[in-house]
Amino acid sequence: MAAVTYNHVVPENNSPDGFAENQTISFVIKGDGKKMIKNSLRLDFDLECSSNFVAVGGANTLVRPNDRIGINNKIGGHSFISDMVVESASNGVLEQLSDYGRMANVLSTATMSEEQYYTQTAQAEGRQSCVDGGRYAVQAVAPSSMIVARAPGGGVGATFGQKLTSLGLAITHDIISTGGVNDKSSPAQFSIKPYCCLNRAVGDDISLAKMGFIRIEITLARSLLALHGGTCTAAAGYVVRNPRLRYLSYPDNGKQGKVMMNTVVSLRSTANSQFHNVQARVPLKASSGVVISYIDQQRVRDTREDSLALEQYPRLDRIEFLFADNNQKYIQYPVEDKETMVKLGVDALVQGGVHQATLNRVAANDGTLHGLAFQQFIDLTRTKFNVQLTSSSANMSTNPIDVFLMFMGMIEI
Fold it and tell me: Which residues contact 204 (CB under 8 A, 6 or more apart)?
């Protein structure tokens, strides 16, 4: 391979004050004579998280440790993305990802093991092994801080602390900054690898001469979907500053081989009765399976609760899948065993290119996933897909459940 180049792209709608919830950040990748290395795209940004958000560039009150406001610790910086669109000059829209944060949590829950949260890659993304870690990840930092020992009654100095330790006396510590004990001067920083089709590809690298420009539009999540916990209220908010895309490339060889990209199409429905039917025509020509997750609507509206949690469906007795395959053969697939429901969801992820997904990891990460692998690629644009959920809960009408369907699929360029 020829010499690799590190590329850096700033938004075409860049704002010096940053971007807040529901705003869209638009990147355009151009590079005649370059070939983008597949799966090399990263999104870097600085974050200012506020317990009392006034406006972008306004007098916002930054989050402090005692506020205990944070993000989903399993997905870190991915929490701040709501939707993502990828399109190219020659192929049009390649992918439209919605409910991105939930998709990221599904993929993380099924693939991340305990030790993976301690890698440098996970730390750069703000992923943490515990809930409290997700709170510290959004706080500003003081890079000039240092830790010094002190006796319980006072007396500061590392040498003094060492002498106390040698005498077997208990000591505590203070965090001292050049700007004061509570000075927090630098925003939190994230470097995430988005779960878009450009990062979930196999085959040839991407010729920017053949593809033309690539536009990536990222819509930021509502504050109360991204943030939760502690003293979080409707006044909380955040600002994404200095967003930039990075990717690797090398000189174009003038050829564009086949590229296969894994993708996801998400649909949402609300269940408010014991028998709930989801019927949809899915805009996906090559789907390999479906993964289902749930959350109580009351928890979504509660600012203290994680809106991306993968909760259980209340007293679920039966799931039934009804659809037609590519030969127009009608398939009716009922499932009543609880463990089988989860196993089929994991199988759907594996069939969809998420090969690290395991049943044990879903359980270890306290998630609930259901679904079905189709065992073939099905064109869902030609047939309606049905899922029927049967519950014995008597509270469905008063406590509606949001049902999220993730259809795993493949696109080819």
Answer: 38, 255, 256, 257, 258, 259
